[in-house]
């Protein structure tokens, strides 16, 4: 395939189509094509690949994908109608490779985009990452966190994009969020998103982009993070259960972990069950949340899952919102936690973040 024909510069494109970034949508344009090319280059090999770009805006990353890679197809998902004409302009120059979807990425089913390529999917158990499918995006800050949680959940269930194998995912985040995603044990930035990201994928902190490179310039710098789904998760429990445990344990960040664990249970059971769990998991009740390793979270999740299976309705208990008693919760249809459908026999302890260390120290 040939490269893109000569096109107006990105800056001229924005002027031609009168594209002003909307603050309400957290829009910031990355104008430096050298940086958009770097994002694409660091995302991995895209030759002969099917690529989805999230939130292309005026098309900076879109151009970088099309001009330097023999991609088979590039599907862009954009909710803002103003960007459709300039993207169509790029589409006309792309030899039919660019397809535009005016949709909300939080609602769209990626399977609908890639359904014609099912014959090209890779085995999840392949030790090599899936290199013929990619997802990439320079995200508005207001959707970055809910979107990565949605994608991580899809990874855990091997659905959506991850029906096609261990599809790599490269996204931008506020620097602070990026550091939390890749945060290592005993780091003050370690949080719920650290556990959720690292137990199901291997996040890599690729590089940072100064806020001054964007128009308009945000007050924060941006981190580019690449996620590779793990063959097997580091915690052999359902996403919903792991998320609940992570949310509760980081609820009181500076308090002893026993205080966090107690919030999992109704008052009348909290002392007894929290003590049992901590003893069973060999965890000091005076440690704090960010000092817990992945093996600690795995033990906590597995023991809490066992308790929830023994006590119907316990999984539904929420000390903040749900004031129902267990005798009411045990009558509900979803009184037990969802269980994993896949069996795992190569469970690994720890998390590989060696490539990210220079950014996280």
From TrEMBL:
Residues annotated for S-adenosyl-L-methionine binding in this entry: 28, 30, 55, 78, 104, 138
A Pfam family this chain is assigned to: RrnaAD
Keyword Phosphoprotein: no
GO terms, molecular function: mitochondrial transcription factor activity; RNA binding; rRNA (adenine-N6,N6-)-dimethyltransferase activity
EC number(s) per entry: 2.1.1.-
Origin: domain of life: Eukaryota
Gene3D superfamilies reported for this sequence: Ribosomal RNA adenine dimethylase-like, domain 2 (1.10.8.100), Vaccinia Virus protein VP39 (3.40.50.150)
Compartments where located: Mitochondrion
Class in the EC hierarchy, top level: transferase
GO biological process: one example: transcription initiation at mitochondrial promoter
GO cellular component term of the entry, any: mitochondrial matrix
InterPro entries, sorted: KsgA/Erm, rRNA_Ade_diMease-like_C, rRNA_Ade_Mease_Trfase_CS, rRNA_Ade_methylase_Trfase_N, rRNA_adenine_dimethylase, SAM-dependent_MTases_sf
Ribosomal RNA adenine methylase transferase N-terminal domain sequence ranges: 35-231
Alphabetized UniProt keyword annotations: Methyltransferase, Mitochondrion, RNA-binding, rRNA processing, S-adenosyl-L-methionine, Transcription, Transcription regulation, Transferase, Transit peptide
Family that this chain belongs to: Belongs to the class I-like SAM-binding methyltransferase superfamily. rRNA adenine N(6)-methyltransferase family.
Protein name in the entry: rRNA adenine N(6)-methyltransferase
Lineage: Eukaryota, Metazoa, Ecdysozoa, Nematoda, Chromadorea
């Amino acid at each position: 395939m040939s490269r893109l024909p000569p096109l107006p510069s990105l800056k001229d494109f924005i002027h031609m189509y009168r594209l002003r970034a909307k603050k309400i949508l957290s829009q910031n344009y990355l104008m430096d094509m050298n940086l958009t090319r770097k994002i694409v280059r660091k995302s991995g090999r895209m030759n002969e690949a099917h690529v989805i770009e999230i939130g292309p805006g005026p098309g900076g990353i879109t151009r970088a994908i099309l001009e330097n890679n023999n991609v088979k197809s590039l599907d862009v998902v954009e909710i803002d109608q103003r960007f459709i004409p300039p993207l169509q302009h790029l589409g006309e120059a792309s030899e039919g490779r660019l397809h535009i979807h005016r949709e909300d990425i939080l609602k769209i089913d990626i399977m609908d985009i890639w359904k014609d390529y099912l014959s090209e999917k890779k085995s999840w158990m392949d030790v090599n990452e899936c290199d013929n499918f990619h997802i990439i995006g320079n995200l508005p800050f207001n959707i970055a966190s809910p979107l990565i949680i949605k994608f991580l959940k899809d990874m855990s269930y091997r659905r959506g994009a991850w029906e096609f194998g261990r599809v790599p995912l490269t996204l931008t985040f506020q620097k602070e969020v990026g550091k939390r995603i890749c945060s290592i044990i005993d780091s003050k930035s370690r949080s719920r998103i650290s556990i959720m990201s690292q137990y199901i994928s291997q996040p890599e902190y690729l590089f940072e982009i100064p806020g001054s490179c964007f128009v308009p310039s945000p007050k924060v710098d941006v981190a580019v993070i690449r996620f590779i789904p793990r063959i097997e998760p580091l915690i052999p429990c359902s996403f919903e259960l792991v998320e609940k445990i992570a949310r509760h344990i980081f609820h009181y960040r500076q308090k002893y972990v026993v205080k966090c664990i107690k919030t999992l249970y109704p008052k009348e059971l909290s002392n007894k069950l929290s003590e049992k769990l901590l003893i069973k998991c060999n965890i000091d009740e005076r440690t704090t949340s960010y000092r817990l390793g992945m093996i600690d979270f795995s033990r906590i999740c597995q023991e809490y899952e066992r308790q929830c299976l023994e006590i119907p309705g316990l999984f539904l208990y929420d000390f903040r919102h749900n004031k129902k008693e267990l005798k009411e919760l045990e009558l509900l249809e979803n009184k037990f936690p969802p269980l994993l459908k896949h069996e795992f026999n190569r469970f690994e302890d720890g998390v590989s973040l060696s490539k990210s260390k220079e950014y996280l120290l």
